[in-house]
Write a structure and sequence with these properties.
The structure is a single chain. The chain folds into two domains: 59 residues, DNA polymerase, domain 1 (Orthogonal Bundle), CATH 1.10.150.530; 303 residues, Aldolase class I (TIM Barrel). Helix content is 38%, strand content 19%. Bound molecules: S-adenosyl-L-homocysteine and iron/sulfur cluster. The site of iron/sulfur cluster (SF4) has 11 residues, from α4.
Length: 371
């Protein structure tokens, strides 16, 4: 089996190249070919010695998962579906805005956390993605977008780990992938333009702060433990007091940063005035001076199995103004890509059952084309 070079950050690639008798600067050149030029063919890497290229050709490959489909939304959002084998597919979404291009990346096929309001949570868990499968989402999207709009300039300016899965449950594979995103010889994204979103896997929040303090988003969704445990079973293991302390510890590694709290607005469940006031009290009780967190209110994207309804626009605005008036910076997230099921929490809608159907359909299409 060939070594997939998409599995390596620069350190690991240098170590691998050393086993082939090559110096570190050769690894750097190779790394730039892969990530900056989007090369997948060693023959084209003309500044590498032929002997090195020949060795790579026999032992290594640059192998992203196959793209099953690519859909564009009316608002410019693009969604890719990748085949990761065994009937599982993962999704990646590009969101274009005037001043930035954000890629929403998946970390697992499905998700084991079982949050009540999330389609991924309802569909169950298949497996962790490998580093190469996380990196390949960025590699494919960036070079596909450049080709489509005929540019050599960077298109993706921000990455959010908010696709399918709980990234901190797959920490081992996530960390090298984050390092590739940040590396100046690859995508060169600054620490603040890469966001890890978590439901609150505490020990790994601490590890991330130490190893690679990128921007942190925490799925909060409730102002007290009873409600949060009902919505997010992980809260039984890591309750709110511990979660908030972990957020403040995280900021010790990333001074002047904010933690973003995501709060999905559920009609009659967590969206009343009293909930907003309880939230304000909860944050104030941390006793931390200054603004250390922001709130992002997410309109709920409903799906068949959820039995939940989203709050009205008026309710979301009223909730936001209570938080804002109390000095908590609060924004309301715009929902994008609705017509291609690319919005928050809907991605997993395509995993497993529907994925299997899609895979079958995709395979049939391929066979039809060949016939
Ligand atoms: N597992 C991580 C990251 C993926 S979920 C986490 O939970 O943070 C990304 C964001 O989408 C989270 O804030 C999550 O709470 C939110 N989300 C999940 N389902 C949703 C839905 N149906 N409507 C709106 N947002 C949802
Ligand atoms: Fe998993 Fe995040 Fe969905 Fe919860 S909200 S089930 S942690 S993807």
């Amino acid at each position: 089996m060939k070594v997939n070079l998409l599995d390596f950050d620069l350190e690991n690639l240098a170590a691998y190249c050393q086993t082939l008798g090559e110096k570190r600067f050769r690894a750097t050149q190779l790394f730039r070919w892969i990530h900056q030029a989007g090369a997948c063919d060693f023959d084209g890497m003309t500044d590498l010695a032929k002997s090195f290229r020949d060795k790579l050709k026999t032992q290594a490959c640059i192998c992203p998962p196959n793209v099953i489909s690519r859909k564009s939304s009316a608002d410019g959002t693009i969604k890719w579906l990748f085949d990761v084998g065994n009937g599982d597919a993962i999704e990646t979404v590009f969101i274009a805005e005037a001043d930035r291009g954000t890629l929403c990346v998946s970390s697992q096929a499905g998700c084991p956390m079982g949050c009540l309001f999330c389609a991924t949570g309802h569909q169950g868990f298949s497996r962790n993605l490998k580093t190469s499968e996380i990196v390949a989402q960025l590699w494919c999207a960036e070079h596909d977008l450049r080709q489509h709009i005929h540019t050599r300039e960077r298109v993706i300016t921000n990455v959010v780990m908010m696709g399918m899965g709980e990234p901190l449950q797959n920490y081992r594979e996530l960390l090298p992938a984050l390092r590739v995103m940040l590396d100046d010889h690859a995508y060169g994204l600054s620490r603040r333009r890469v966001t890890v979103s978590t439901s609150g896997v505490l020990p790994k929040m601490d590890a991330l702060g130490r190893d690679c303090p990128v921007a942190l988003a925490v799925s909060l969704h409730a102002p007290n433990d009873t409600l949060r445990s009902h919505l997010m079973p992980l809260n039984l293991k890591y309750p709110l007091a511990d979660l908030l302390s972990a957020c403040l510890r995280y900021l010790e590694h990333a001074p002047r940063d904010f933690v973003t709290f995501e709060y999905c607005m559920l009609d009659g469940v967590n969206d009343q005035d009293k909930d907003a006031h309880e939230l304000v009290a909860l944050i104030r009780a941390q006793g931390h001076p200054g603004a250390w967190c922001k709130f992002n209110l997410i309109p709920f994207n409903s799906f068949a199995a959820s039995n939940l309804r989203g709050s009205s626009v008026e309710r979301i605005k009223a909730f936001a103004s209570i938080l804002n008036n109390a000095g908590l910076i609060t924004t309301i997230r715009k929902t994008r890509g609705g017509d291609i099921s690319a919005a928050c929490g809907l991605l997993a809608g395509d995993v497993q059952d529907r994925t299997r159907v899609k895979l079958r359909m995709a395979r049939r299409q391929v066979l039809d084309q060949e016939a």
